[in-house]
Amino acid sequence: MANWTGGFELVDLESSPDDDTAITVLLQDKSVLARPNYFQVDMAIDDSKPGQPITKLDVFPVPTPLKMIPLDDPKREQYEKGMQPLTPELRRKLIQNIVKVLRKQHVNAEEAEAKIAILERNFREGDYDTFVNSNEFHMRLTTDISADDIYINFGEPYQLFRDNEEEGAEDEFSFDKEEVYEYYEAVGYGFGNVSFDTAALPGKTIATLPITQLFGLEERGVRDAVKAKMNSVAEADVLILDLRNCFGFFPDTAAFILSYIFDEQRPLTKSVDRDGKTQNFTETVGVEEMRATGCTIFGGRKPVYVLTNNRTMLHAEMLAYSVQKYGRGVVVGEQESTAGWARPMDVWVELCEEEFGQGWWGMSVQTLRLVHVATGWNWQDVGVRSDVVVEETVVDEHCRHKARLAAIEVERNKGIERQDELKV
Questions:
Q1: Is 383 left (phi over 0), alpha (psi -120 to 50) or beta?
Q2: CA–CA separation, 379 vs 381, rounded Å?
Q3: Parallel, antiparallel, or unpaired: how do β-strands 247-248 and 267-272 relate?
Q4: CB 38 within 8 A of CB 63
Q5: How many angstroms separate the CA atoms of 299 and 302, rounded?
Q6: pLDDT tens-place string over residues 114-142
């Protein structure tokens, strides 16, 4: 927590009336820009043992407590409404709202009904009857049905939170597009330095290109940067794309990179709704169009290797998956597979606004499923399976390069096999 907070100030402490070994502490983040601003700590000790060891330590964010809002604050009424004690009727309405969203919008109707069955059974059997605090109730609902495809949230509305901060904090927190562009440039637009190896395979040049992020292709400077990097490796004999630790948020950039290594246009992914209708489609750019815009193509015949690990994510995974499933290259991984994240679209839905006010309760739900055209499926949860697995370690500096060396060894062995075939 020290890495993502400004430190804490103790603002309240309560002992349990029923258990003198338990205590609840309220902490406030000292950073003026922090959100959430308050954290609750539930602790318990075992006073029957030497040193009274801690048996429970739960830390979780909470909205600004009502006791911290002055009685004459014009926003107090909104806080009282948002954090009002839950009645049986309010719990029923929340469950009904969640069920309605799942039934109408979740990408998988069967999975939605399974989650609905859990909620309705728990409600019917009284499992939710004791919850009067919205924060605690949302955490229980999260435990019951939240997964990669759905998230239920209760929290302080953004505008109320901003209004509670010191004057001038909004300007300090404001979004500056120019700073984003400066950041893009500072990190090389998501690309590391290209290395060229002419010694490992005699007579051949191996180009290794590290990619740490896939920024939006239409953002200022990104397309030109991608083009410059990919053009620079076009004349190499072997290309190694290093996607380890790459969080690839933008599919258009992945598709553009893939356009350099195919001799023909290839369909990649499509997003499909619960009725099976395609909502959007991703494909590579045709070779002639690439060349017409100043791109020097690596081509579809020379060897390609993709280095991955379990922090290769989203559309970086799509890039590796496309190379593998179209038989274009070999995936060399530090682990058996990549992160396994293929979620194309979530929508945010407000819950019970009339009862609690805008922004207090809400949920995100997956409405589209990503499908790769080459397989009819995707890499969600399972990741992109490595063709070659190389266990990495940071203890030995040399070991950080084992994946690249393994790719070179595979290529070297392929050359030996070809020579043996010619002898026959």
A1: left
A2: 6
A3: unpaired
A4: yes
A5: 7
A6: 999 999 999 999 999 999 999 999 999 99
